Amino acid sequence: MIYGLYLSAQGVQTASHRQDVVSNNIANAETVGFKKDLALFQQRRTALQEQGTAPARSNRLLEMLGGGVQINPTLVDNSQGEMEHTGSHLDVAIVGEGFLRVSDGGDETLLTRAGRMVVNAKGHLALANNENYEVLDPKGKPITLAGKTPPEIARDGTITQDKAVAGRIGLVAVPDKNQLSKIGGTMLAYPDVKSLKPAPAATSVRAEYVERANVEPSTELAQLMDAQRQLEANANMIRYQDQMLSKLCNEVGKIG
């Protein structure tokens, strides 16, 4: 009976974790460049299986139940989001593999797919949601825009202003996306980010567009409802087992 309580408690924990992940996806459905998270789980082995002990020492019926469910680290879905036209000369949407490399002017260099940009007080191309982070060129330098005419951004990231090349947006490739870690908003950290190589030739940017979050609200809402039902079911199982234990202790075991 206690074993059943443990399994149900694990079910509550995993369902609650799934709720948190899905809720965060829904909250960022309108965030430019956001990539949704996937809540992953796997079956947990029993204690004897983890210890490598012979099953003969345990209850075979309980061994068949397994060890419940355990939470795995969340996985980021890096699939391409839909393109949204903004009409802004400084907005870009990345098409294909690749990330913008941005820097706060110090030692911190991060990656992002959020291509909504502005010119900050220093005259550098920067992220619209945080002007302290400046977009870098292929050489890792800030891009200065000081012309009088609106800039034009080509598919390869080259920026033309006042009929002259003002700079080029540096897109970089990430060899192992599993090493990407979210640190808030649409900012991503990556080990040794400064040594990343340029993105493949097939990668391009689309001017006056941004990449929407790859979140389908209706799908996420369905998953949220499913997670809520799983949580309620496991919580009810805990209550039923608690009531049964109470009867066993207070009624069945009572001496007449």
Please explain how this structure is put together.
The protein is α+β, with helices and mostly antiparallel strands. The protein has 2 domains: 2-79 and 215-252, no CATH class; 83-211, no CATH class. It has 4 helices and 17 strands. The longest helix has 36 residues, at 217-252. It is elongated and about 95 Å long.
Task: Considering the chains and any ligands shown, give keywords for the structure.
alpha+beta, 2 domains, six-stranded antiparallel β-sheet, 29% helix, 26% strand
User: C-alpha Rg, in Å?
Assistant: 26 Å
Instruction: Return residue spans where pLDDT drops below 50 for at least 5 consecutive residues.
Output: none
Main structural class: alpha+beta
Shape: elongated
Mean pLDDT: 88
Total count of helical runs of at least 4 residues:
4
Helix-strand string? HEHHEEEEEEEEEEEEEEEEH
Say how many strands there are.
17
* Helical fraction: 25-40%
Distance between the termini: 25 Å
Largest sheet: number of strands, sense, barrel closure:
6 strands, antiparallel
> How many structural domains does the protein architecture include?
2
Strand fraction band? 25-35%
Protein topology:
Layout: H1 2-27, E1 37-43, H2 47-51, H3 60-65, E2 69-76, E3 83-85, E4 92-95, E5 99-103, E6 109-112, E7 117-119, E8 125-127, E9 130-135, E10 152-153, E11 158-161, E12 164-168, E13 171-172, E14 181-182, E15 188-189, E16 204-207, E17 209-211, H4 217-252
Antiparallel strand pairs: 1-2, 3-17, 4-16, 5-6, 5-9, 5-13, 7-8, 8-9, 10-11, 11-12, 14-15
Helix pairs in contact: 1-4
